[in-house]
Design a protein that fits this description.
The protein is an alpha+beta fold. It contains 9 helices and 11 strands.
């Protein structure tokens, strides 16, 4: 008898920490079906069984060979007694990581000292992201914002050299060339049985201190998150243009799910928190998932935080919502408010569960898979 189709779609995001230090290294690892990290990553995915899955920190190759090999050699085969899973629809996205900034000759040296590439990376496409889906992806309708210039965002947060020197981090000649997205921002529709949902994908830079400007990455992280905040509001998205030159954001009445490692916690960390807080309080996003009873949580995150006595109480209080081993809520699946949610969670087993071996000592990743179930045919 044919298995009855479930009436919900499970959306998930997972920073899989598969970025390697040299181009092609990941492909070589994927050629073998017995790599421990890859086996444990696949086991986690097979356990949660997402319908739509965003992977971050997987090195980009134009033909998507790494993604195909991961699906073929690992997901399609049982890992640790889990049932195989297959994703017939796959899409890879280019990344600004490792791409050199085209500075004018007279400012090339200064520019390379400031920020040699549009996004941190030892080669083009390191730390990219990719998409796996059980449902068709409208790849020809996708919109990418890889080339959108930071200067074209109204009232951007401009970084300074340092806290005591308020001189602008960018000179007048460097600023016009710099892209906002540290990797990429992508809107790609997925066709579910009863509706089409726009997947809004990104992986903003972590807000770590820059050698010349403590606030550089924090400002950029804030504005990368702000891009989606504005994209969801027709009255605020008119300035946004995609890589094909089309202006504007999500149309009124369209459904969306924001997915990705946003590298921002509303209650802790080094970021400019008003950016992520504004997104979580967005009138067009599902409030219960963003800030209410459907915030993805786990018991494992709480017990992990309790074992780290160095964490302040503020982090322990919110620990069930943590998605990274250093104790922050960094990874998000945020549906629009027109979608109905039935469940959510973070894959973070406790010490007494056998599956804890898949995450112990960050053997698979220093992030945890985050998922949200959205009702489809209701």
């Amino acid at each position: 008898m044919e298995k009855k189709r479930r009436n919900f779609c499970r959306f998930a995001t997972f920073n899989v920490s598969l970025a390697r230090q040299e181009m092609g290294a990941l492909l070589r690892e994927l050629e073998t079906p017995q790599h421990e990290q890859l086996q444990k990553l696949a086991a986690i995915i097979q356990w949660i069984r997402p319908d739509v899955l965003l992977l971050q920190e997987i090195d980009y190759d134009e033909k998507g060979r790494a993604l195909s090999l991961f699906n073929q050699h690992y997901l399609n085969h049982s890992q640790y007694q889990q049932s195989p899973i297959d994703y017939p629809y796959q899409c890879v996205f280019p990344s600004n990581t490792g791409i050199a900034v085209d500075y004018p000759p007279e400012e090339k040296l200064a520019g390379e000292l400031y920020y040699p590439t549009f996004g941190f990376g030892h080669f083009a496409g390191q730390y990219a992201f990719a998409l796996l889906s059980k449902y068709p992806l409208l790849t020809r309708q996708q919109r990418r914002f890889q080339y959108f210039l930071w200067r074209d965002m109204p009232e951007p947060l401009l970084p300074t050299i340092n806290d005591s020197d308020k001189a602008a981090f960018f000179t007048q000649k460097l600023w016009p060339r710099f892209r906002l997205s540290s990797k990429n921002h992508v809107d790609i529709p997925v066709v579910l049985p009863c509706r089409t949902v726009h997947l809004l994908l990104s992986h903003p830079t972590p807000p770590l201190s820059h050698v010349l400007s403590p606030a550089f990455n924090a400002c950029r992280n804030h504005d990368e998150i702000r891009l989606w905040h504005d994209y969801l509001l027709p009255e605020r998205s008119g300035y946004l243009y995609d890589d094909q030159g089309t202006y504007g954001g999500l149309l009124a009445g369209e459904s969306a799910v924001i997915m990705g490692d946003l590298n921002a916690d509303p209650n802790a960390g080094d970021g400019i928190r008003r950016g992520i807080r504004a997104l979580l309080q967005h009138p067009r996003l599902h409030a219960e998932v963003a800030t209410g009873r459907w915030i993805p949580r786990s018991r494992g995150g709480q017990t992990h935080a309790a074992q780290r006595s160095s964490l302040p109480f503020s982090r322990l209080y919110f620990a069930r919502a943590h998605t990274a081993s250093w104790g922050l809520r960094a990874d998000y699946v945020l549906p629009s408010d027109d979608l109905s949610v039935r469940a959510s969670g973070v894959f973070w087993p406790t010490l007494d569960q056998a599956e804890f071996a898949w995450v112990a000592h960050d053997v698979s990743s220093d992030h945890r898979l985050v998922w949200v179930d959205v009702l489809d045919c209701v």
